[in-house]
Specification:
- The strands form five sheets. The chain has an eight-stranded mixed beta sheet.
- Helices cover about 20% and strands about 30% of the residues.
- The chain has about 450 residues and is α+β, with helices and mostly antiparallel strands.
Amino acid sequence: MEPQLSPTGDRVLYHRSDEHPEGRQVWLVDIEGREDREILNFGPRKKVSASWFPDGKRILLVAETETHRRIGVWESGEVRWLLDDPERDVEYAFAPPNGGPVVAVEIISAGVRASLLDAENDEESRLPKTDGNLVPLSPIEGGGWVVLRYDARHPVDLVRWHPISEPTSITGLPELTTVSADDLTPAEDFCWTSVDGTEIQGWLYRAPVESVGTVVLVHGGPTSHAEDRFNAQIQYLVSRGFHVLTPNYRGSTGFGLAFQESIKEDGWGGREQEDIRAGIQALIESGTSKPGKVGITGTSYGGYSAWWAITHWPVSVVAASAPICGMTDLVVDYHTTRPDLRPYSEEMMGGTPDEIPVRYHERSPVNSVANIHGKLLVVQGQKDPNVTPENVRAVEKALKNHDIPYELLAFEDEGHGIARPQNLRTLYSRLADFFENALTDV
């Protein structure tokens, strides 16, 4: 949502949330800063995002309604809708910088389905269904496109795509890597029913050998989703003999606006955590996993979910947890995180810690550490500005007060999440060793 200078260099497009933490409006200011005005506002609790067309005159917008997102064009104060269909789960859209149709991206059951919208005559063409995911980026001569192509067994690559020919790599990545698709494990669509009857989807990666146990890898956000995409951490854990489940709990993107917004009904630590628990139970009931042989990990909100699991569920459901940069005390987190992230906490929780102190207390795992009976490995980046090390200091004090054993893996040179290659090597092997030992001891 950073400010965007127009292609003509005379105006700046930017976003504000003046009326409510849940909402977002679009403003336009001239380069001299003399004329600053709001141009798009669909309600205090509704989000709208905007970006420039290459001509520097028109603006592409994606706006929320009560039921769905719609795509439109703003020009000279007027809005014309290109796509406004409650049955379509639009995630985002953009206008390629070198011209051509607008790219509209839907995420259907966590899989990408892209369309091309002609903003001049309102015509739409959909990219064909294919194995994996295709995201058009820019048209090229001859009627083709440069697209992103990826799935669990094919790392993200830039390819040339044309409707009448096979996609071909631009980067030569398939020839450069020493790992082939046959060496990697595919993502299997796995669905289950949660506590209130809500259908939940996730991706299951099965170990090719006899399983050591199952690791649940929870995505962060929570406004995000797990998809059929190459993930080195998943593939490493599978190679070490673990099944891996990546759940798309309520609050995840990719399943429609209503599903994404439903996490706000309870706030963090509500039924979205039961969605994850129900997924584990579905694995156990199917015979894929065994009671006491399941671990959980994740980064950021995934780390919070890992904390929630180990402090609220029995060892038969989750026997080991490795939260990475996860919130432990939501009050501490609110006051120590970057100030620009606090409105997101207010949006998700329904207010500030001062306004709803009981909810913040109840939903903070730090207040339930006495319930921990499984194994615990805490991972933290010491320079994290989002989920600060204050979260670890708060929970370490509580763990020691209750004589709860734990391991700590801290990275002095990491921020929010572990990203440096040398640190990832350490993290992946440590996680696998931790879960192997923890699940074997049960």
